[in-house]
Sequence to fold (380 residues):
Amino acid sequence: MTKSVPTIPAEKDPTLAAKHLEEAFAIFYAESQKLETQQAALQEKINQLSSELQKSNQRLGILLNAIPAGVILLENNIVLLHNPAVLQFLPNLSTGNHFELPNDWQASIAPGEYLIGNAEDRNSPQKMVQVIRIDEGIRSFVQIQDITANIALHQETQRENRLTAMGKMAAGIAHQFRTPLATALLYSSHLCDDEVQPEMAKEFALRLRKQLMDLEKLSQDMLRFISNRPTKTVLASAKQLIDEAQASIQALFETKQVKLNVQCDIPETVMLLVEPKSIPNALVAILENALAVSKPNDTVLLTASIDSKKLIITIEDQGPGIASTIIDSLFEPFSTTSANGTGLGLSIAKNTLDAHRGMIAVHNTKHGAVFKITLPITQQ
Fold:
């Protein structure tokens, strides 16, 4: 009987265990080599991206320094960085400090615009700046730009347009003055007649007074038309301005038996930076135009609403609409089909709204004409 030789387990065979260990080390070394190769490639990519980021930051820094507008980056309203140009507006600005606009910056007519500087300082003239702020989470981007030249150019363009219009309407001025002036001269000549009766003399005096008052109103309207910009602006409630316009003209509507329906549901906190009387006067001029084409028992509808930081006012009448022959020139001086009107009311209203950075437009509907007025809201 043959005696069997006992088998030695692989884990107890030193030779086989060494072979397995050698294979394991070989695999570990190969994987380590791959990992080192990948790490080297990754480090090279990181170095490349870091170099590109550094170059991009350098280019961005050069670009920011070259921009004439001031640029500020905020985080939780703390200044992270800014370009040198912003120091011409905010010389005390520094990184790490809380950001806020100076208290002496005066808000202008349009939102985001401010008047800075001292008007009495000849060495440092006043400037008009525009502040644009974009918030994205905890970070904010602020741009401050000097728009003094742009505003001056805009005002000069408006002035030139008005002067051009004045040149075109010279003949109209002569016509507007000629009739009441000739009538006034006629009545004054009657008053010089020794044979005129006292009752007739009083009647001629009253008529003369009326013609002179018409001439005075016409001359005042022309001066208002030529005026370039608001002389003194204050913060005023948009709702109160509309209420003031309604109160000024309500009696005329009642006299003609026309209903004035005002739908103004905007809050008292909607503020406009305006010349106190100019906006109500402009609204009254447009309402007078609507009243002139209305019949008894008609309704003129005025609505006010807010759309994207702008006040929208619409005035809609039930008249025949604006004639196609004058709708394109409706806001030009002396553009009227009324025998009693001067044609300056709507022109003055448009100039007033333009001076306050607003707009006015008109279109016809099957029920009448609709005037749409847009004005920038200063705060709400």
Observations:
- The CA atoms of residues 361 and 372 lie 5 Å apart.
- The chain has a mean pLDDT of 81.
- Residues 149-228 form one domain.
